[in-house]
Amino acid sequence: MSKTIGSLAGSTILITGAAMGMGKMYARLAVEDNASRVILWDVNAELLEATARELEGRGSQIHTQVVDVSRLEVIERAAEKTRAEAGSPDILINNAGIVRGKYFWEHDQRTDIAATMNINTLALMHITREFLPAMIERGRTSRIVNVASAAGLLANPRMSIYSSSKWAVVGWSDSLRLELIQAGHKHVAVTTFCPSYINTGMFKGARGPLLTPMLEPEAVTQRVWRAMKEGTPMLMMPWTVKLSTALRGVLPLAAWDAVAGRVFGVYKSMEHFTGRQ
């Protein structure tokens, strides 16, 4: 297991989706933790600049790039620029993501299906592929955090595309963790984060299942930060995500559908979803 990170002094961290919400909170934590260089990627130029202004003058060098992570060629150019201007990151937080809450047949193939898979899944792979070789070669303690979802562990109506994108992240991220261990690169630790609904506005209108209230982003980012520094392989929040995953694994499918649908209310949680407008 990779050793626990103390201070981020001397480290470079890259955060995607960093202009608002939890990405911005991770950026604040990086500055508070004395990171030498904090690299912020986001598609929203105005909010990105505002976030940078908030963080400047607190001891960390702040670097910003407007990046549409849905496009590989844009990622490649941004990664090249990042390496030239700030160096390759020691810590990568793949945070950017979108959600579409509809029945499968209601999705537009480009703006919903392709966009969700490109941003939620392929972007994480492409960005990690850009920076992982340097992490391996340097030999010093490094971290990758991949934001998945409880929806990547359990199916749910009106989330077929989102769930698919996050199931792929869970499988890829944990496989990457094992590959690094097997290849002897234990200094690079991968954390796969699987939360239920978080109260950021992204899931506005969604209702948490039984015993699963909406998570508060400040508490979540603090917990993820600790897991990142400790090199925790997988973090599920709240505890009911683990319970649901265990029940899904042991119950017959018809029984699980009854429990998830009628008892826990999982299958009704997206009925009133509106999302961030």
From TrEMBL:
InterPro entries linked: NAD(P)-bd_dom_sf (IPR036291), Sc_DH/Rdtase_CS (IPR020904), SDR_fam (IPR002347)
Transmembrane segments: none
Disulfide bond recorded as keyword: no
Keyword terms, alphabetized: Oxidoreductase
Presence of the UniProt keyword Oxidoreductase in the record: yes
Cross-referenced PROSITE patterns: ADH_SHORT
Similarity comment text for this entry: Belongs to the short-chain dehydrogenases/reductases (SDR) family.
Protein name stated in the entry: Short-subunit dehydrogenase
